[in-house]
Amino acid sequence: MPRIVERVTRVAGHGVRVAILPYESPFVPARLHVSAEQARREGDGHRHVYACALNVFLTWDADEIDRLFGAGGEARFVRYLDAIAAKLDAWQGAREVDLATRSQAEPSVLFGGLDFEA
After folding, report:
1. Which of 3, 22, 74, 104 could anchor a disulfide with 97, C-beta 3.0 to 4.6 Å?
2. Where is the DUF5594 domain (predicted)?
């Protein structure tokens, strides 16, 4: 998770907080919390695109995590880290999240059951 935190922080940019939330129970796995205050948009006078401040949670499928410890797991994980920027772009459009303005349509968004495909 620390390597994912570092990469997401680099991709998301200044003002975004990325924190690891520990495992609590089988129903509340370890997760990554990505949050920020809404940013002002330059030039158009609007405060944000969506009504809610950035508040996203990421979780990965347990079987996918286990696969990382098998043969080729490290190389697979490195490819995944290299693909994080593209993945974040795709996730934004799918769930009405906008990293640039630090806003989203819903108060909380979960990207759950993620895999480590690049």
Report:
1. 104
2. 1-117
46: left (phi over 0), alpha (psi -120 to 50) or beta: beta
* Residue 103 in tokens: 């806003």
How long a stretch of residues is the chain? 118
Strands (DSSP E) along the chain, which ranges? 17-21, 31-35, 52-53, 55-60, 97-98, 103-104, 109-114
For the cut 90, the answer to whether the pLDDT of residue 93 exceeds it is no
Token match 């080729």: residue? 72
Q: In angstroms, rounded to a whole number, what is the distance separating the alpha carbons of residues 98 and 54?
A: 8
Who contacts 51 (Cβ-Cβ below 8 Å, separation ≥6)? 103, 105
Cβ-contact 26, 80 below 8 angstroms: no
The whole-number average pLDDT for the span 33-45 is 74
What are the tokens at 74?
A: 């490290």
